[in-house]
């Protein structure tokens, strides 16, 4: 608190009294007290007193107090603003550190997955079993989808969201490098920009890879054929459509890929359905576009 004490100089005053109150009047036996004796003039100097405050001076004091209060409040607001500026600066510094750490984590995860992909590739070349080789190659493609998300999170400025269109475009290119040149030329894309979290992008990537693997294996009986990929956003949802011009659905195969598809679709809170592409098969994945904040609240 601010305390202001205002002192005034002493102003001695001479006061004339009718009689000295400190002096006793002595009377002889039988003598009568008279006014002449009891009220003899007496002068006293009064100290420790000041001149009285005038109305103008009292008003000036009130104005001074108000001014000092305003100065004090302004100083407190300035101190608060300075503290807030420091807090914001610390927050920005911590956010920058967090982004750097996340980029480093994504970089290391991507390198680790690439190492696993290399090991699987070596194992696939070393085995003499065609079925084992096929399964190892499919595992490489699934890991490629996960690795690519971490690579994009590491290279982009935003470490929390991924542009699904750019991600799928790069994933198509990476998948094309694992196929023969005829297959790589058959895949066409029409992708609209859709921003989503890295976790959801990984799930969509795994679903996409599984759909491409299924079309490659079953649509044309091992031969090459066109595969179209469409990505579009409708309000707060997106749709991913993978279509071929092959022989359509044949039976209901329930294997690892089908179980993984169901798990990924469920984790996206989405739906997946297929219909006749006249000819061929068209698979449609639909799910909400979730922001990082909504994912945190959901977790």
Task: Write up this protein.
By secondary structure, the chain is of the alpha+beta class. The chain folds into two domains: 13-74, no CATH class; 96-298, Histidine kinase-like ATPase, C-terminal domain (Heat Shock Protein 90, 2-Layer Sandwich), CATH 3.30.565.10. Helices cover 55% and strands 18% of the residues. The chain is built from eight helices and nine strands. It has helices at 35-38, 55-126, 130-155, 164-178, 181-186, 198-219, 256-267, 292-298; strands at 13-18, 41-46, 161-163, 187-191, 195-197, 227-234, 237-244, 271-276, 281-288. It has a five-stranded mixed β-sheet with strand order 4-6-7-9-8. The chain has a two-stranded antiparallel ribbon with strand order 1-2. It has a two-stranded antiparallel sheet with strand order 3-5. A hairpin with a 4-residue loop joins strand 8 and strand 9 (281-288). Helix 3 runs antiparallel to helix 4 and helix 3 (130-155) runs antiparallel to helix 6 (198-219). The mean pLDDT is 80.
